[in-house]
């Protein structure tokens, strides 16, 4: 529900006098009051359904107020006192009596309400007065419904234990409840862990004081013999004492209709107000429960499950009991395909979810996938949810056991191939072993059997024998010549029981192993030059013997080369001298990029060059040569900070090959850096810079001029509205040494690239000046322009709306560009009556103003007051107000 915002009204004060004008600030709204605040005027249905209640469904009906309406309403800002920020207040006096400060010991509001509440009468020690409350019917979705509240009273502390014991109660009635109150109701406003009702005499500074918060004034404190308050809430709430936050717990039957009465009343007399504060959105009649399926279930073995989940807003401290049912679209049948389910499950306190296991029976039938559809069974719910669990037939279990081979004196390892079924598998061999494999001797007369059982109690059997085998043999032979990068294939003849595997060497060094081989002969790939030999051979039974060698020769040219680097940056004097060490002539030579056809090339720039050579055997080889460019010589730079502070401002050259020499002529004479001290500030020189490699840079060098700062400008100027002023700027270096001048923003300036522009800014502003010089240095300055005086806006002292097209409207005349909009324009008569109001007018339109008419009739001649809120072009707001004479 949207809460009503605070609205504050302010008087408008107008000043008489023809021609009076003033610029002022807009009135500012007051802040909301500190501490608790109440509002009345809410319908009972609003208070309960929109403020008090929370839950997945709107199952609340027949909401009625009890007692005087002034004792029932909405409260907020209670967090700093009672610990509850907002909600419903039920009070025995006007709800506004809760407002701070606590300035009375006996705040009272006698409603003179007739009649007694039937439930409070059973709790009270005397006559009940000013009973106020609210009642309604509701249908809970869950077995537990809770809400939070605080009880407060002006009877604290002086009437604790007396006959003046204001009372309240939350009376619940309905199915399964058999109490002593009306309609067999029970009072659920209980002290935690007890059956005692919450009241002034049961929670105070004497009894259950751990649940009590003191807020009495000094007079009552002295009367009760209490020490000073540790914490005072006098500026937060009126009541002299209140309980800590209690939680009411209702144990109900879901989807049944219950009636709840919440009532507070004065006892003995109608004095000294008491109140109950009910927390907003704490009355939770049931949150959404979601349902998700788990992994599929396999008949006879792994169970499936459904997961029931609380919503994120469900309180974790209470259990949630959920009813469910099997959907009509299920193809699986309870008792035949799966174990029957109870139809109800509880999510325990502290847990966000709970799992419902589903055990599928193994009926031995091949039925295909069957579905179990589960649905939430909450008839009174406004939401539905369901989930589908798949019940699968167990996959057929199969076992294969390949035949075994063993060489003389060795054992064979038997390993089955198991497919299907449901892991894990259990193995039992005829030897008594229970592992996934077994080692046995070769004896064709013995059959080895294996039984495999899966998690679903399926079994499969297999058997095999182990035969004697001769050790394998491998013979390597052949000779091959290849080009660089090509592959030779060497023949290996194999004998034995496949699969085989080889290990081999090149020139006596281990070089690798082959994949598992299933056929003979095998062609061994070879890419390296050398003598190849076999190290080992093994087959399905055992290791064997190897013999033979093979030779691989790599033909083709081999390249080497020497680089002569580039001498200076950008020069083309590099060279490459390549050499062919082997190969069969004649040779084909190609350079990329194309720089010649020989092995030696000169006059090269920096870059990457690739030489490719092919010989008469068709073998090709290539080699890359990279010529690096030396770092270029960088001219003399300027340290701008040192130039201003008097330090060494010249930055020596970089790059090339130091040390450097300097001259002002290509023919010299050449000097060290000391020659720079002879240069005149502000003079240009054709400076020649040479490094030790003889590399040369010619720099058009301007000798810097020392200065403390390039320009003097004020940091702040003051202008009256409409006034112009030339910027008072003074250069400290010759203007010829200035390279750039840049002012920003451009608004209100006569120029942006001059030293001293004329300023005609209509508003306060800040300008930035950036100046650069010929030495590469720059400075940045900020100049603040403040505006003073009245706005240059003319408003006539009188106007004559007679239709002569002259002065027919009461309008303003601002200078161009000053005002963006008339946000609000109002005209009042001398008694403060509003005659004319308009918004968002064009300040420069001749028709933007009052035409002297009221309700389409000419206003009488006389003095009128106007009030305008203007939005200036810089976004600021100003108030323009005064008086004007209407002439007829």
Folded structure, characterized:
With 888 residues, the protein is mainly beta. Helices cover 3% and strands 41% of the residues. The strands form 20 sheets. Strands 2, 5, 6, 8, 11, 12, 13 and 15 form an 8-stranded antiparallel sheet that branches. Strands 1, 62, 64, 65, 68 and 69 form a 6-stranded mixed sheet that branches. Strand 31 and strand 32 form a beta hairpin. The radius of gyration is 51 Å and the shape is flat. The two termini are 54 Å apart. Residues 1-33 have low confidence and may be disordered.
Key descriptive features of the protein:
single chain, 888 residues, mainly beta, Immunoglobulin-like, 8-stranded antiparallel beta sheet, 6-stranded mixed beta sheet, 4 helices, 3% helix, 41% strand, flat, disordered N terminus
């Amino acid at each position: 529900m949207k809460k009503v915002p605070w609205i504050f009204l302010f008087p408008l004060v107008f000043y008489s006098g023809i021609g009076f004008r003033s610029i002022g600030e807009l009135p500012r709204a007051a802040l909301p009051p500190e501490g608790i605040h109440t509002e009345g005027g809410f319908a009972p249905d609003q208070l309960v359904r929109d403020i008090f209640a929370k839950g997945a469904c709107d199952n609340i009906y027949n909401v009625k107020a009890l007692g005087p309406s002034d004792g029932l309403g909405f409260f907020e800002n209670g967090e700093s006192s009672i610990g509850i920020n907002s909600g419903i207040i039920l009070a025995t006096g006007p709800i506004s009596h809760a407002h701070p400060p606590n300035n009375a010991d006996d705040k009272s509001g006698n409603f003179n309400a007739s009649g007694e509440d039937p439930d409070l009468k059973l709790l009270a020690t005397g006559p009940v007065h000013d009973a106020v409350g609210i009642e309604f019917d509701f249908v809970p979705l869950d077995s537990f419904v809770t809400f939070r509240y605080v009880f407060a009273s002006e009877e604290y502390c002086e009437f604790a234990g007396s006959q003046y014991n204001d009372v309240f109660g939350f009376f619940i009635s309905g199915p399964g409840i058999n109490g002593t109150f009306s309609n067999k109701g029970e009072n659920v406003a209980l002290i935690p862990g007890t059956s005692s009702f919450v009241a002034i005499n049961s929670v105070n500074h004497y009894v259950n004081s751990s649940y009590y918060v003191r807020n009495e004034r000094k007079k009552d404190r002295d009367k009760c013999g209490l020490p000073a308050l540790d914490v005072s809430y006098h500026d937060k709430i009126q009541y002299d004492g209140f309980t800590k936050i209690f939680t009411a717990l209702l144990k109900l039957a879901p989807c049944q209709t219950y009636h709840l009465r919440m009532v507070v009343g004065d006892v003995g007399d109608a004095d000294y107000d008491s109140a109950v504060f009910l927390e907003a959105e704490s009355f939770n009649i049931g949150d959404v429960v979601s349902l998700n399926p788990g992994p599929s279930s396999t008949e006879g073995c792994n169970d499936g499950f459904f997961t029931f989940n609380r919503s994120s807003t469900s309180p974790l401290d209470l259990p949630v009991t959920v009813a469910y049912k099997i959907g009509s679209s299920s193809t699986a049948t309870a008792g035949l395909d799966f174990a029957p389910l109870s139809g109800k499950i509880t999510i325990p306190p502290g847990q966000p979810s709970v799992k419902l296991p589903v055990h599928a029976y193994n009926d031995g039938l091949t039925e295909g996938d069957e579905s179990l559809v589960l649905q939430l069974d909450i008839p009174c719910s406004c939401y539905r949810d369901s989930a589908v669990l798949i019940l699968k037939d167990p996959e057929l279990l199969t076992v294969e056991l390949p035949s075994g081979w063993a060489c003389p004196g060795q054992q064979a390892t038997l390993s089955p191939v198991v497919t299907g079924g449901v892991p894990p598998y259990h193995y039992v061999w005829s030897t008594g072993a229970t592992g996934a494999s077994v080692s046995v001797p070769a004896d064709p007369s013995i059959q080895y059997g294996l039984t495999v059982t899966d998690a679903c109690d399926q079994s499969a059997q297999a058997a095999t024998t182990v035969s004697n085998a001769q050790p394998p043999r491998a013979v390597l032979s052949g000779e091959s010549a290849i080009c660089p990068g090509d592959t030779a294939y060497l023949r290996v003849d194999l004998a034995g029981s496949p699969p085989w595997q080889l290990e081999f060497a090149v020139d006596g060094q281990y070089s690798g192993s082959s994949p598992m081989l299933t056929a003979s002969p095998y062609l061994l790939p070879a890419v390296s030059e050398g003598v190849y030999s076999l190290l080992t051979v093994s087959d399905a039974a055992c290791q064997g013997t190897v013999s033979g060698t093979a030779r691989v020769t790599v033909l083709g040219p081999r390249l080497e080369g020497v680089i002569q680097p580039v001498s200076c940056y950008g020069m083309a004097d590099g060279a490459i001298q390549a050499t062919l060490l082997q190969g069969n002539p004649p040779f084909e030579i190609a350079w990329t990029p194309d720089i010649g056809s020989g092995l030696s090339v000169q006059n090269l720039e920096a870059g990457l060059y690739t030489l490719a050579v092919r010989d008469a055997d068709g073998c090709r080889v290539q080699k890359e040569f990279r010529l690096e460019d030396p770092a270029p010589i960088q001219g003399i730079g300027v340290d701008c900070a040192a130039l201003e502070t008097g330090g060494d401002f010249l930055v020596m050259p970089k790059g090339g090959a130091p040390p450097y020499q300097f001259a002002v002529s290509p023919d010299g004479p050449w000097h060290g850096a000391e020659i720079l001290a002879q240069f005149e500030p502000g003079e240009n020189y054709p400076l020649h810079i040479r490094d030790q490699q003889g590399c040369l840079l010619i720099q058009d060098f301007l000798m810097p001029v020392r200065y403390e700062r390039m320009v003097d400008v004020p940091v702040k100027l003051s202008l009256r509205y409409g006034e112009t002023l030339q910027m008072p700027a003074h250069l400290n270096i010759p203007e010829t040494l200035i390279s750039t001048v840049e002012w920003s923003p451009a608004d209100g300036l006569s120029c942006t690239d001059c030293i001293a522009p004329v300023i005609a800014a209509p508003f306060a502003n800040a300008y930035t000046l950036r100046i650069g010089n010929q030495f590469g240095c720059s400075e940045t300055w900020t100049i603040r322009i403040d505006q003073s005086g009245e706005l240059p806006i003319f408003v006539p002292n009188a106007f004559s709306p007679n239709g002569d097209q002259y002065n027919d409207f009461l309008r303003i005349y601002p200078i161009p560009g000053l005002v963006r909009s008339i946000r609000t324009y109002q005209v009042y008569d001398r008694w403060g009556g509003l005659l004319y109001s308009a918004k968002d007018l064009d300040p420069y339109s001749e028709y933007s103003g009052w035409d002297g008419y009221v309700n389409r009739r000419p206003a009488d001649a006389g003095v009128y007051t106007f009030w305008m809120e203007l939005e200036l072009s810089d976004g600021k707001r100003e108030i323009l107000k005064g008086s004007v004479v209407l002439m007829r």
